[in-house]
Design a protein that fits this description.
It is a single chain. By secondary structure, the chain is mostly beta strands. The protein folds into 3 domains: 8-25 and 159-245, Sandwich (Immunoglobulin-like), CATH 2.60.40; 31-156, Jelly Rolls; 262-292, no CATH class. The protein is 1% helix and 46% strand. Strands 3, 4, 6, 7, 8, 9, 10 and 12 form an 8-stranded antiparallel β-sheet that branches. The radius of gyration is 30 Å and the shape is extended. 23% of the residues are buried.
């Protein structure tokens, strides 16, 4: 694998990997859930937070206070990737922050959003790879009061994509300070033809390690993954390797030349000519066709 491409990484173990939840081609699809224990920091006039998950869009949860929140303790930690909620054109406006927590005490911001005007379901998605057991929807702003009728959580069933981690040092800008960067994993699969190896495909180009300095770090959290060897579950680990030991490829940040080979054909038209005047000239026209050879990816 090339450092300059930084797209895939192969990891080889000492023994066979006998169990692996492979990532579907194209990635995981969002799943809807209303699981867990739901509570609210406050409820106005008896409008229960349970109304948000009773399947009835005529019942509601109501609040009149900014800073109020709905807290959800999931049955197990999940990577929340969006919200789906029902509102009407009456008292619909809210600015909100979705927060996540591992222990229900210390919360981190996951997403900030606001409600568009209209009636019916609204679906909002956001990009995160951190699983939390507790989520809190905090109402940052509202218009006098807020009516919410249904609330559904969206999550992706990530497993080894978040159990495995890839990180390295990169410059924040050209010749700038180094900072540790994590590279998201898009797909985990068995390495073709090798029962002891896994193949990790990283996310979009911006998240690939084409500019990493020094070693890459590969980690695995056994509490999140399901890697299994013949002797049992694979234990958590942290290993280091240098991408410079890999097959060198063109580096897009260094001057380089590319040579393309082409085969051309020229057809000349036969002309019969007899000179009549001393100052007379003749012009020949040639038609040429060129087929270029595919040289695949250059400095991706």
């Amino acid at each position: 694998m090339s450092k300059s491409i930084g797209q895939k990484i192969g990891i080889r173990f000492t023994e066979d990997i006998v169990n692996l939840t492979e990532t579907p081609v194209g990635g995981h699809q969002d799943i809807e859930t209303q699981e867990g224990t739901w509570t609210a920091s406050g409820t106005y006039s008896g409008y229960s937070v349970e109304s948000l998950k009773d399947g009835d869009v005529s019942t509601m949860w109501q609040t009149r206070s900014t800073g109020s929140y709905i807290q959800i303790e999931l049955d197990s930690p999940k990577v929340l990737t969006g919200l789906k909620y029902y509102r009407t054109t009456s008292y619909y406006s809210m600015g909100y922050t979705m927060k996540g927590s591992q222990d229900g005490i210390v919360f981190e911001d996951v997403y900030k959003g606001s409600t568009p005007y209209g009636s019916g379901y609204v679906t909002t998605t956001f990009d995160t790879r951190t699983p939390y057991k507790y989520y809190r929807l905090v109402i940052d702003s509202l218009s006098n009061r807020l009516y919410l009728y249904e609330l559904i959580l969206l999550y992706k069933p990530y497993k080894n994509e978040i159990a495995l981690g890839v990180s390295g040092l990169e410059h924040q800008y050209v010749n700038g300070p180094l900072h540790n960067r994590k590279y998201g994993i898009e797909r985990v699969e068995k390495y073709p033809g090798d029962s002891k190896a896994l193949l990790l495909t990283l996310e979009v180009y911006e998240n690939r390690f084409n500019n990493v300095e020094g070693n890459l770090t590969i980690t695995y959290d056994a509490s999140l993954g399901d890697l299994m060897g013949r002797g049992g579950g694979v234990e958590s680990f942290e290993v280091f390797f240098s991408p410079t030991d890999l097959l060198p490829k063109p580096n897009p940040h260094k001057a380089e030349n590319l040579t393309a080979q082409a085969t051309g054909s020229i057809t000349l038209i036969e002309v019969f000519y007899t000179q009549t005047y001393n100052l007379e000239n003749i012009t020949l026209q040639a038609e040429a066709s060129i087929d270029f050879i595919d040289v695949s990816i250059i400095n991706p």
